[in-house]
Amino acid sequence: MNLYEHTIIARQDTSPAEIKQLTEKYSKIVEKNEGEVVKTENWGLLNLSYLIKKNRKGSYIHFKIKGNGKLIEELEKNESIDKKLLRHLTVKVKKFDLDTNYFTKKDDIEKTNNKEKN
Hints:
By secondary structure, the chain is an alpha+beta fold. 36% of the residues lie in helices and 42% in strands. It has a single domain, classed as Ribosomal protein S6/Translation elongation factor EF1B (Alpha-Beta Plaits, 2-Layer Sandwich), CATH 3.30.70.60. The model has no long low-confidence stretch (mean pLDDT 84).
């Protein structure tokens, strides 16, 4: 099995409930195609570097997936049809970094560090 990091960007006007539905929808596609979602991260609403389909911001969802190439083909085929998504990107990796959360707020990191010290 190969390891993939897969990120999708949803339109900025997508509600939190719709984000949850998108996450579940693509997780089910992975499971139907004999894959496994190791971790899902919702990075939230972030600024885009440039306008994509007249949007300045996008809601990022990141998946860490174990699976094969056909799984990724099926996933990307469904995402290219979905009107709620702006972009998607899949990167094959050698191993997952499950410890680091790159998009947590600084306040959350400080709270976590204080809890570990106590």
